């Protein structure tokens, strides 16, 4: 069994597994109301102050596994009853306070939350709004900042703390990267799931010849389930009831070709082009740098590319993407992409489904994977897309110089976008990955390891074809429109 990185993942896994088990039996609607008691049998709580609170939180997790709040368009939700264990006193006056006469901290506070006793400053936590102005004003740096992990993780600035000290997500700023999901130590922030719909679809397809459900696996899967061969993982996935298992890396090859062509044709006018593979990166530009929308490649992501190819080949197809990315759950519902990829399953959810279906991938025979190229497979790590485009630009023998920059994580992306905004970019191609490390660092990966990039490179080197164009020679990919609709950045 895969070792989970932390206990929150295991709790989440247990809930997903039991919900899927009931869906397989066809008794979910009847039995779900008592599922929280099965998951938390008692008499003592495992992780919370009492069994009643723990069951309440599990009940909210069950709702999210079953699709969450339909009125909330965000794929990420806060479990309010679970969000109460973090320190509520973010700013604290330390022993470094010298009791200075100016008391700049008191003057800087907009809500009169700081007072002085015997010349030393104290913060009234009941009044404090955590604005940080006191810390900035203190000449001795004597005020410490214990920022909540979820707040610190959100480099998009979408997460704040309300008057009840609960985490709040601003949907207008959120890019669904899932950083807060991964970093919350109490699991109080969680992504919605489609495992029930996927399970029902798989069960139905067994008796329906007109329903072909394909699993498309992201190349980041090479960094997961490392105790078996990737062909065994694919075999286990197929045993869930999928009609076939396809590498998203083939879609990455298609994207590399299309994006390279777009780069060569437009770079003289644009001066700088950005990648479009990472939906969180594209959303970040749309929300924070809308004026840069013209620089974003119109090429679809590898997930959408391979889904288009499958549906062009098989009109009976439905497609389930399997990867480490919560933002993919948002991407499939975007106006110009809706219906191309039908569902998204995370690696966490995949593990739970395999166990619910009682499939041990260690017992599975290895099946061959599709013939994606080395370059398509390394899309999973930061810099992989850049290497693929560089390889293709050089193959074209074009006089255009390719001057790329690979941005690893949202902070680096923001720096590159600021330079582009003020016409100070030294590159003409910006690869943006919102997650540190690239897709392998996705929020819902089972494990995040320093060795992830090595696993991706090993997976890439297993490819029969090293050249992108050769991997696509048997596929009529040129017939597939890989461009998004005009104005997609303004929607």
Structure overview:
This protein is α/β, with parallel strands linked by helices and about 500 residues long. The chain contains 20 helices and 15 strands. The strands form 6 sheets. It has a 4-stranded parallel beta sheet with strand order 10-9-12-13, with helices on both faces. Strand 9, helix 10 and strand 10 (about 245) form a beta-alpha-beta unit. The longest helix is centred in the middle third of the chain and has 23 residues, at about 250-270. It is globular. It starts with 6 loop residues before the first helix and ends in a 20-residue tail after the last helix. About 45% of the residues are buried. The mean pLDDT is about 95.
Write the layout of secondary structure elements.
Blueprint: H1 7-25, H2 28-31, H3 35-39, H4 51-65, E1 76-78, E2 91-93, H5 104-108, E3 114-117, E4 120-123, H6 133-137, E5 143-145, H7 149-153, E6 159-161, E7 167-169, H8 179-183, E8 189-191, H9 195-205, E9 212-217, H10 230-239, E10 244-247, H11 248-270, E11 273-274, H12 279-288, H13 302-313, E12 317-323, H14 327-331, E13 343-346, H15 347-356, H16 374-377, H17 384-395, E14 404-408, H18 410-421, E15 429-433, H19 452-461, H20 468-471
Parallel strand pairs: 9-10, 9-12, 11-15, 12-13, 14-15
Antiparallel strand pairs: 1-8, 2-5, 3-4, 6-7
């Amino acid at each position: 069994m895969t070792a989970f990185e932390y206990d929150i993942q295991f709790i989440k896994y247990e809930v997903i597994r039991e919900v899927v088990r009931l869906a397989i039996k066809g008794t979910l609607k009847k039995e779900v109301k008592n599922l929280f008691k099965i998951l938390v049998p008692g008499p003592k709580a495992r992780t919370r102050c009492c069994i009643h609170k723990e069951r309440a939180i599990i009940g909210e997790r069950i709702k999210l596994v079953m699709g969450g709040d339909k009125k909330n368009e965000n794929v990420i939700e806060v479990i309010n009853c679970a969000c109460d264990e973090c320190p509520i006193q973010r700013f604290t006056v330390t022993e470094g306070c010298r009791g200075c006469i100016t008391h700049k901290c008191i003057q800087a506070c907009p809500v009169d939350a700081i007072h002085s006793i015997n010349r030393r400053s104290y913060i009234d936590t009941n009044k404090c709004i955590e604005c940080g102005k006191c810390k900035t004003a203190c000449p001795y740096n004597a005020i410490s900042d214990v920022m909540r992990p979820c707040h610190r993780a959100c480099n998009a600035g979408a997460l704040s703390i309300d008057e009840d000290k609960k985490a709040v997500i601003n949907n207008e700023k959120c890019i669904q990267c899932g950083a807060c999901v991964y970093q919350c130590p109490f699991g109080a922030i969680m992504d919605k799931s489609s495992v029930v719909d996927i399970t029902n679809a798989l069960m139905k397809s067994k008796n329906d010849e007109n329903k072909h459900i394909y699993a498309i696996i992201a190349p980041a899967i090479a960094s997961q389930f490392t105790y078996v061969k990737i062909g065994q993982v694919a075999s286990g996935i197929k045993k869930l009831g999928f009609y076939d298992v396809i590498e998203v890396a083939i879609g990455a090859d298609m994207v590399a070709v299309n994006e390279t062509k777009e780069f060569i044709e437009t770079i003289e006018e644009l001066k700088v082009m950005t990648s479009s593979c990472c939906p969180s990166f594209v959303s970040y530009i749309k929300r924070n740098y809308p004026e840069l929308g013209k620089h974003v490649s119109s090429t679809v992501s590898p997930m959408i590319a391979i889904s288009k190819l499958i549906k062009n080949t098989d009109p009976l197809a439905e497609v389930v993407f399997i990867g480490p990315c919560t933002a993919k759950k948002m991407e499939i519902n975007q106006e110009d992409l809706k219906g191309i990829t039908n569902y998204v399953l995370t690696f966490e959810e995949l593990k739970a489904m395999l166990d619910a279906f009682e499939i041990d991938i260690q017992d599975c025979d290895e099946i061959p994977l599709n013939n994606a190229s080395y370059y398509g497979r390394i899309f999973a790590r930061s810099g992989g897309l850049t290497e693929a485009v560089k390889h293709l630009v050089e193959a074209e023998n074009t006089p255009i110089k390719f001057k790329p920059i690979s941005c690893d994580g949202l902070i680096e992306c923001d720096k590159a976008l600021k330079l582009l905004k003020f016409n100070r970019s030294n590159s003409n191609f910006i690869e943006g990955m919102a997650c540190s490390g690239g897709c392998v660092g996705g929020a819902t990966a089972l494990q995040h390891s320093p060795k992830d990039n090595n696993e991706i490179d090993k997976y890439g080197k297993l490819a029969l074809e090293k050249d992108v164009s050769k991997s696509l020679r048997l596929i009529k990919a040129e017939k597939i429109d890989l461009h998004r609709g005009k104005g997609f950045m303004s929607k």
